[in-house]
Specification:
Elements: H1 2-5, H2 12-31, H3 37-43, H4 54-74, H5 78-96, H6 106-121
Helix pairs in contact: 2-4, 4-5, 5-6
Length: 142
């Protein structure tokens, strides 16, 4: 019974890698809007973007989603990328949105939570990030 209720963590790294890749692809999908000028002009009509640097902020946010999504999907610079994603999505949740993370703004906030999972697990899991280590195994251990 105990083995059924508390099994060992089978395929934990692979499961996190799949979630990381899918999350990255969702970010790429949303970030692709940076290439659609009509959508970008539509964002500039929002009340939150009535500042002098609004066009820069909208393009920066969408470009960040696009680039960070690619890096996250590929597993490149996972910790730094996760912090960038968390910062961007917190800004969207609390400054572009109304800060109601339990209702209206829960989708960007879920990206924050996933980014924190990837940030905290990136050191322990080889499936979450690509290592650029130059350490080679000795010939007798191959």
């Amino acid at each position: 019974m105990k083995k059924f209720l508390f099994p060992p963590p089978y395929l934990q790294d692979q499961g996190l890698a799949i979630i990381r890749i899918v999350t990255g692809l969702f970010l790429v999908y949303h970030g692709c809007e940076v290439f659609d000028q009509e959508k970008m002009k539509g964002y500039l009509t929002w009340d939150q973007f009535k500042t002098p640097n609004a066009s820069f902020m909208v393009h920066l946010g969408k470009a960040t989603e696009f680039i960070a999504g690619i890096l996250l999907s590929l597993g490149l610079f996972t910790r730094v990328t996760s912090l960038v994603i968390a910062g961007t999505m917190l800004y969207i949740s609390f400054f572009v949105g109304t800060g109601k993370i339990w209702y209206e703004d829960q989708h960007p906030f879920m990206f924050v939570l996933l980014a924190l999972v990837f940030f905290l697990q990136a050191l322990e899991s080889t499936a979450l990030t690509i290592s650029f280590s130059t350490n080679k195994l000795p010939v007798n251990e191959l």
